[in-house]
Amino acid sequence: EDRKKQEDAKVSDPFSSDPERHPVLRVNCKKPFNAEPPPEILTESYITPHVFFFKRNHLPVPQVDPASYRLKVEGLPGGALTLSLEDLKTRFPKHTITATMQCAGNRRSDMNKVKQVKGLNWGISAIGNAKWSGARLRDVLLALGYGPEAAQWARHVHFEGLDKDETGTAYGTSIPINKAVSEEGDVLLAYEMNGEDIPPDHGFPVRVVVPGVVGARNVKWLGRILVSAEESGSHWQQHDYKGFSPGTDWNKVDPRSAPAIQELPVQSAITAPADGAVIDRGDDTLTVKGYAWSGGGREVVRVDVSLDGGRTWQVARLRSGDDGQPDEPSPPPGRAWAWKLWELTAPLPPEAEELEIVCKAVDSSYNVQPDTVPPIWNLRGLLSNAWHRVKVRVAEE
Amino acid sequence: EDRKKQEDAKVSDPFSSDPERHPVLRVNCKKPFNAEPPPEILTESYITPHVFFFKRNHLPVPQVDPASYRLKVEGLPGGALTLSLEDLKTRFPKHTITATMQCAGNRRSDMNKVKQVKGLNWGISAIGNAKWSGARLRDVLLALGYGPEAAQWARHVHFEGLDKDETGTAYGTSIPINKAVSEEGDVLLAYEMNGEDIPPDHGFPVRVVVPGVVGARNVKWLGRILVSAEESGSHWQQHDYKGFSPGTDWNKVDPRSAPAIQELPVQSAITAPADGAVIDRGDDTLTVKGYAWSGGGREVVRVDVSLDGGRTWQVARLRSGDDGQPDEPSPPPGRAWAWKLWELTAPLPPEAEELEIVCKAVDSSYNVQPDTVPPIWNLRGLLSNAWHRVKVRVAEE
Ligand SMILES: [Mo]
Ligand SMILES: [Mo]
Q1: What does the pLDDT look like over B254-286, one tens digit per residue?
Q2: For the whole model, what pTM was predicted?
Q3: Closest residue of B to A265, CA-based?
Q4: How far is CA A309 from CA A273, A306, A329, A353, B111, in A?
Q5: Peptide bond into A333 cis (omega under 30)
Q6: Residue A55 — left, alpha, or beta (φ > 0 → left; ψ -120 to 50 → alpha)?
Q7: A361 touches chain B (CB under 8 A)
């Protein structure tokens, strides 16, 4: 009887079997579930606990039985193959990387302040850093027949989720073949997040982790891999997740004119103090904290912080581990997948009544963030990486 | 007698045997020779003729006899080896790439306008695009013994020029090993530029071409290659060619705090109309032209042009070949070494008396150029890639 009720509920509400979530999350959308942690929690730890890791679901969370789970691999010379979860865990070496994942819409709210865009109103916390473990996609493709012959025609690897809309269309997307098969690409078919089974909201039992690449290509609940000469034809590859000029509006946008977002540009944000905070005039110093990251394995090499709206700058201290703990070892060039946390403690400017605190990061290719939002504004509010600014008041106790 | 005079002159002036140069070049320094073409010539052709290709010499041009030329290769398991020019041409496949090279100091003059920096006052033309042919560095290193054993300890490849200062110190620098040996790095030991022997000013008989990487690592008159666990200790690697925060001055700069510049950030500039030009009010339209490029093999995917100082933007037309000719074929992702030329023809704003024309480029990682110069100003005036701006007057005929 109870079971029948539940099944009825599931039919009427495909989201009814979604997992429980931490109450501290800021929910941008309930169904599908999209939420981010408060900024001050985000930079409390170098590795983001899964409960605080932003959740960006396009569809209901599918219920997957790990025992009967099968991953289909298609497009290779041997034809279609399937791998069980056990196969992934036992037939291929287990590889672990620390990688930051960021939603293409992170910081969209800054674009909404300029002019309304279409999309969830993300703050600055649609980003997280985790340890991911699994089989290398490269190892799997090579074991299943990828070689010089396939390299002649293969140009993309498609990923399809087990999450499906009412019409039965699964979430799908693709990445370029070189990222998938390169020894230095570090793409994983991950079955662990932070040393435990990947939680349902993050793709249980298997998600693709494409480090350095926009969240949208890191397909959760992975059901199918296809090696192809063509890019994915999915909505999410061809019509969404692309960047356009600020002058392009919905009337004249031509999706074919822009490439699908893969690697993301350099990014940083201030997680403390919060915008609108009041600072005690009696304090000698002010401590500013935040995160910084860049796509494509480019390491963040410097973060500049300004307390006067960008007129003068000081260099923040960067770290690659928890406060007081040793840094993680430096990655090889081009494989810096993880963010840096940063901190600056500076004398409180003596006369100021209001401070505009600004941060901007520099990556190993010396790319920098743009100064302002309007020139990078785009109709979908993606790729929002202008300098981050917060205003605080300085007041007597 | 004459010969003795010449030799005396050479002792007193080590630059006396430097080659002739095209009179149209704008000379920033005569000895060593540093010069760039006028901007309007730069974008007349997709492939830059060598006479117009910027010349950035650190030292006198060495006179090298191609018959007795020997390239030393050291640090590999087999010990020191030498290769003649003939060896390079016959023992390894000839590979050709179209690659743009840019000086780290290109557009330094924009930084000088903010506050004086140290370095040659380059305009916007310390950049050029050429077809380079030669042996792949990867092929040479593999043939001479680079393999899994060397990969255990090798982290950098050093290059030394045959150009030397008074103390006998040769120009030297290094690149990371993965760029040198990757199948996708496309690093060449080039002996041809645009289908002919490399001219003396560009490194005859052999220069390293490290596509996507700052000019300073593309060593000319290559004399020695060293595979090493360490980065080059040279002045040019450790003390020059690094980027710093705008707040860093000569008193407090710590060269160890910044990485050596390798891949360059996204760049673009307007080559026509010229700054200060007068536009005929009677013209219906205005045509703006320029170049755009990004380091690390990232392709330029869009150039935005503004006629109103950055308030509104239009998308320029990009090309990868000469005007009216078919584009060069698209490179694989991450191997877009060549620039794009761009053009926008737009209605002349009817009322304006002055136009501030601005351009900014977007690359395939969706990195963008920063809006303004002061926040990226640095004491050496390197990496000057803010939006390029020119002002023109609109006047009656
Ligand atoms: Mo996303
Ligand atoms: Mo340079």
Answers
A1: 999 999 999 999 999 999 999 999 999 999 999
A2: 0.96
A3: B367
A4: 15, 6, 34, 13, 20
A5: no
A6: beta
A7: no
